Amino acid sequence: MIELVLVGRPLCHLCEDMEYALAPLLAEYGASLTVLNVDREPGLERFSELIPVLLLNGEEICRYFVDELKVRKVLSVYPADSD
Fold first, then answer.
1. What is 3-76's CATH number?
2. What is the DSSP secondary structure assignment for residue 38, as one 8-state letter?
3. Could you tell me the pTM of the whole model?
4. d(CA 61, CA 70)
5. Mean pLDDT of 31-43
């Protein structure tokens, strides 16, 4: 299963919006999402002023808002979960 990472912080409306906008894409492609708090996870300080940031394998897919075309392009490379 492909796992995307959303770097954000609590009470961030853009972070909540991104998580909400990703939900149908995650379901469609059988992907999962891990949400990390930029203020609590070591090594994420570089994203502090860029949140929300969506990552796959440490590589940035988009920031601030979901770029649906870009997310679809990245997710389409991976086979759908067969469960």
1. 3.40.30.10
2. T
3. 0.90
4. 7
5. 95
